[in-house]
Structure prediction request, 263 residues.
Amino acid sequence: MKSLPCVLTIAGSDSGAGAGIQADARTIHALGGYACTAIAAVTAQNTRGVPAWRPVAPALIAAQVSAVLEDLPVAAIKTGLLPGPAAIRAVAAVLRKHPRIPLVIDPVIGSTSGARFLSAAGVRVLAAELLPRATLVTPNWPEAGVLADRRITSMADVEPVGRELVARLGCAVLLKGGHAPGRMCRDCLVTIDGKVHWFESPRLATRNTHGTGCVLSAAIAAGLARGLKLAPAVKQAHAFLQRALRAGRAQDWGAGRGPAFAG
Prediction:
């Protein structure tokens, strides 16, 4: 029997299970992987927001990551919420010892409900010390604007900003189009060799969109762990997220933004 590919997710815990470690693990398992976890923060969270959260000590985050990588055959890694410059440096130091494992970074800066997780100093350290190690970074429009230090105001900005970020950061960029207006949702992948791939689907009418960035990045990591090349892994993940959003429409959990249910 063939072993399941191991995927390590380094992210925050969501007590409502819509995003973070919980959404990552559901996604990885649904796509035929085995999810290993390193918890970087603990959040008190539900469909309405994040009333409280606390970071895990950087040394303990690094110890979790090292414990997994030293023993299990990890085939891909993804990061989500990394709570501050010290945590990013700690994770980067461990991952530098494992340079061949594909790394997908979801640059979680804040939550949709307004909680801020990563300071400006944290963003600078992320760009300088961890993103150059990445295979792919998956910012939405606001996150890409922070990383590029320029606003994205229309679809015409997307490809130029994607190319700028690839040149600046040294990794491929998937610029997610969930914040764009219009009936279609369009994601733009710019690879390290300058190729551009677009992935589009009709925008679904649903309030249950919590955790979509986590689901997408975890699905990409799961694809890479199974040996897919980057563009096919993104295509598979984009399709999986659409299925999760459709499934999430049928749920009636909570009074706010429910989860995109992957699992």
Q: What stands out?
A: The chain has one domain: 6-249. The chain has a mean pLDDT of 93. DSSP finds eight helices and nine strands in the chain. The CA atoms of residues 207 and 257 lie 5 Å apart.
